């Protein structure tokens, strides 16, 4: 509702303003539960704003990718305001529209683009470039029809707490058929990021975004001033200029200078190829991502050796992998034969003694100078013939709550947040490459792991169980291990799913020689919350209006029909539900599926500790009902028996008495004397008011005299 947006943004105050995007201004919203969101308030543009709003909402709602900003809710509110029309004061409709997006704590890439290039190291800069390209690839190749962004620029690239980029602001996106080019004379994009074919002829194609991407990459690499120098130099000169600047920085900050310097060169070459005047010569985004993946393969070995070098203080690389072959880059060590160097360079992914020994045995058995790609070392675990057991675990919590709700941060049992930790043979790994891996948090189908257990599966079997969105893996969040552990932080699901899922932690890199077992949680389901922004709260309080429940909307027919029967709060609805379930469903007019969803939501409400009694004199017992009129137990001969402990015969007797009890409770409610007879304390009823006249004296006497000591003590305190 608009009222909630006004509340969480301080009335869209200037202090909460984060920036402006196409067709809207963005504000920071802080929900009462602490969750932060970005609220994009759509400009009032009569005649075109409705179409733009619908376009952006539909685009965002279907996107599921870790490099695309996620939609968590929206607002469409019609307000009647006084206005002058032909000299008369009339009521006119004012439409308020807003999109609610996940909040990115590091803001936009714009503030990190600097001429000094000192706001991030190369590893971070490369991760931003790669993430933008992956997000754009998703838009261009994974959606049918594809989405062209048409305003890609640093201000529209947001960075989360881990500096992972998310493409944002689809206010001027257009949906086009695959490989289709169109001409339009509407104003698109931002000066400096528009391709020449659009400036001259208003042509739009996927190469529009590629040109903008090239400008972004060059600015990341060279800064603002450096970007404009590209027009003054040849491509070769500019590449050398940028590479030299980064090499100077890498020399001071990284022992991986040679591998990273080559990666710098390839990235600047990609950027320049994207801004070619002839759009047909620009690469596709798939070509770009493939080329970046190739550079990472060449850096893999250097990265592994870097950690050993860092810890030992003097080990230098003997080889680099090039197209799957070891290439000598430095003179061979005197303590190893050439053939052994060629093999052991690959075989040492970590400092694990068992793996080193295995690599040496394999190398010694081959003829000199012949290289053979190694087998997966420790591909399995002890049960499947592996030599060591490396695994991820969720710690500090029992698991996620069940159910989870879309648009709400994942909540954990017995803990506010979860950590993911890496172990080797049940001991935390705090040093080496494995202690600083990047970890992905995903959802997997629960049934497979119920059948197979949580340890006996291969990497390939595991990957087949990943829950897909739009035919793609949906990474919920990523974290970087530090000393073998990392806090997961806040994340949430954007789509409901009826079947059981589990959360999992997986190593991002799939080419490790060590098999790192994934962490798996207990199962849960994801239900449609539609965000607290639509007024649906989990759990609802019992005094909340019924329109806060799922499938009941304010001013809707269901809400009005319930109000006619004085069913205006969750408590009143639940009382009616326990008295007459079928009658209540008939009153709402809900079909079974909607009914089940509403009831599931309502039953998450806490009835409180108030207990009402109904005495059955002939049986010398009392029936005890909670504040929702749900039978919770029986007091008989001074002993309390929960309803779950009653046998079948006793439950049948309770059923016959319940209707009389309901009538008595209704009479007390209408007369205004419905006061709790007991409070449920530590699972036992404690007397709070004088005994009712409808219970026999013998029952009263036994009940008060036969309380256990601790209950009697509580009674005395009350």
From TrEMBL:
Residues 694-718 are annotated as: Disordered. The keyword Transferase applies. Gene3D superfamilies: Phosphorylase Kinase, domain 1, Transferase(Phosphotransferase) domain 1. It holds the Pfam family Calmod_bind_C. ATP binds at residue 41. Keywords: ATP-binding, Kinase, Nucleotide-binding, Transferase. One of its GO terms (molecular function) is protein kinase activity. PROSITE patterns: PROTEIN_KINASE_ATP, PROTEIN_KINASE_DOM, PROTEIN_KINASE_ST. Residues 12-296 form the Protein kinase domain. InterPro entries: Calmod_bind_C, Calmod_bind_M, Calmodulin_bind_N, Kinase-like_dom_sf, Prot_kinase_dom, Protein_kinase_ATP_BS, Ser/Thr_kinase_AS. PANTHER family: C2 CALCIUM/LIPID-BINDING PLANT PHOSPHORIBOSYLTRANSFERASE FAMILY PROTEIN, PROTEIN KINASE DOMAIN-CONTAINING PROTEIN. This is Protein kinase domain-containing protein. The lineage of its organism: Eukaryota, Viridiplantae, Streptophyta, Embryophyta, Tracheophyta.
């Amino acid at each position: 509702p608009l009222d909630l947006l006004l509340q969480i943004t301080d009335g869209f105050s200037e202090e909460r303003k984060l920036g402006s995007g196409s067709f809207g201004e963005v504000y920071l919203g802080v929900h009462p539960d602490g969750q932060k969101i970005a609220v994009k308030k759509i400009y009032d543009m009569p005649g075109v704003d409705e179409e733009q709003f619908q376009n952006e909402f539909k685009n965002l709602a279907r996107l599921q990718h870790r490099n695309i900003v996620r939609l968590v809710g929206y607002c469409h509110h019609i307000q009647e305001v006084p206005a002058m029309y032909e000299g008369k004061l009339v009521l006119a409709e004012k439409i308020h529209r807003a999109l609610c997006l996940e909040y990115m704590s590091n803001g936009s890439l714009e503030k990190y683009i600097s001429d000094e290039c000192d706001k991030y190291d190369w590893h971070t800069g490369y991760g931003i470039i790669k993430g933008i390209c992956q997000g754009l690839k998703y838009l261009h190749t994974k959606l049918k029809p594809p989405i062209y962004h048409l305003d890609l620029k640093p201000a529209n690239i947001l960075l989360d707490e881990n500096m992972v980029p998310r493409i944002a602001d689809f206010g001027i996106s257009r949906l086009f058929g695959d490989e289709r080019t169109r001409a339009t004379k509407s104003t698109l994009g931002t000066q400096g990021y528009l391709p020449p074919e659009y400036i001259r002829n208003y042509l739009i194609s996927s190469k529009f975004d590629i040109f903008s991407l090239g400008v972004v990459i060059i600015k990341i690499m060279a800064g603002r001033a450096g970007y404009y120098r590209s027009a003054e130099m040849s491509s070769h000169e500019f590449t050398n200029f940028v590479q030299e600047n980064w090499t100077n920085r890498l020399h001071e900050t990284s022992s991986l200078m040679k591998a990273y310097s080559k990666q710098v060169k390839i990235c600047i070459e990609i950027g320049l190829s994207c801004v070619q005047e002839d759009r047909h010569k620009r690469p596709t985004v798939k070509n770009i991502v493939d080329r970046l993946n190739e550079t990472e393969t060449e850096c893999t070995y250097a990265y592994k050796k870097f950690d050993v070098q860092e810890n030992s203080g003097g080990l230098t690389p003997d080889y680099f992998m090039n197209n799957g072959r070891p290439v000598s880059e430095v003179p061979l060590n005197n303590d190893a034969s050439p053939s052994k160097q060629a093999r052991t360079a690959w075989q040492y992914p970590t400092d694990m003694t068992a793996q080193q020994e295995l690599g040496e045995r394999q190398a010694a058995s081959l003829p000199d100078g012949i290289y053979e790609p190694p087998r997966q070392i420790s591909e399995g675990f002890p049960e499947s013939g592996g030599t060591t057991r490396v695994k991820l675990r969720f710690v500090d919590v029992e698991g996620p709550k069940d159910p989870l709700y879309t648009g709400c941060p994942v909540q954990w049992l017995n803990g506010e947040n979860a950590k993911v930790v890496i172990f080797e043979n049940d001991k935390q790994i705090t040093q080496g490459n494995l202690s600083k891996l990047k970890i992905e948090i995903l959802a997997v189908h629960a049934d497979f792991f119920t059948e197979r257990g949580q340890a006996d599966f291969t990497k390939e079997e595991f990957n087949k169980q990943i829950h897909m969105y739009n035919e793609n893996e949906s990474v919920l969040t990523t974290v970087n291990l530090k000393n073998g552990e990392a806090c997961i932080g806040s994340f949430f699901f954007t789509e409901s799913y009826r079947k059981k899922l589990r959360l999992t932690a997986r190593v991002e890199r799939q080419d490790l020689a060590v098999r790192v077992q994934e962490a798996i949680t207990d199962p849960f389901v994801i239900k449609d919350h539609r965000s607290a922004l639509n007024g649906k709260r989990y759990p609802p309080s019992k005094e909340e209006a019924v329109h806060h429940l799922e499938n009941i909307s304010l001013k809707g027919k269901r809400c009005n029909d319930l109000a006619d029967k004085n069913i205006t709060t969750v408590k009143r609805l639940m009382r009616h539900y326990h008295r007459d379930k079928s009658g209540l469903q008939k009153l709402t007019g809900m079909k079974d599926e909607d009914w089940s969803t509403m009831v599931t939501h309502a039953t998450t409400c806490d009835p409180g500790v108030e207990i009402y009694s109904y005495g059955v004199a002939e049986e010398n017992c009392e029936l005890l009902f909670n504040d929702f009129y749900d039978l919770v137990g029986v007091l008989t001969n001074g002993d309390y028996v929960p309803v779950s402990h009653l046998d079948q015969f006793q439950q049948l007797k309770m059923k016959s008495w319940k209707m009389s009890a309901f009538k008595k409770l209704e009479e007390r409610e209408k007369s205004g004397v419905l006061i709790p007879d007991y409070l449920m304390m530590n699972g036992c009823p404690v007397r709070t008011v004088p005994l009712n006249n409808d219970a026999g004296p013998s029952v009263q006497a036994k009940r008060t005299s036969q309380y256990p000591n601790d209950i009697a003590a509580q009674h005395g305190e009350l």
